[in-house]
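quick one before i forget lol
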Amino acid sequence: MLTALIRRPHRLVYLSSGLHRGGEGSLGDLDWTKRRWDPARAYAESKLQVVALAFALARRWPQVLSNAVDPGWARTKMGGPGGPVDLETGQRTQACLAVSDDPAAMVSGRYWHHLRQEQPASMAADPRFQDQLIAQLGELTGVPLP
């Protein structure tokens, strides 16, 4: 909804997770009103949808650099003290994509982890899935993506 309402920026950086690869891509019940709640599955699906959204915007808005980032399991209040990634490392990639003029960061429609491009789940890269997601989000929120 926020993406649909904001003035288009020069760059968008969406935070996802490597767990997006476990998302099943169910678009029939985005708000979990018909299915039994499963927090792990909901997390994985939401992170898959975030990657697909970033890629959809890279296609639809070619003048905007739109990427998805997996910061890793960072030691934060949310991640807890057992996370293997320190806060500095966890934030480095999204900060670089947001402000760097390095040509390596001036790309769009990519999935990143620790300053390297990685292969996302195939469903996230599927334009049909992306378009279906955008349509479902518009119906759910009442705010279509321009």
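fyi DSSP finds four helices and four strands in the chain.
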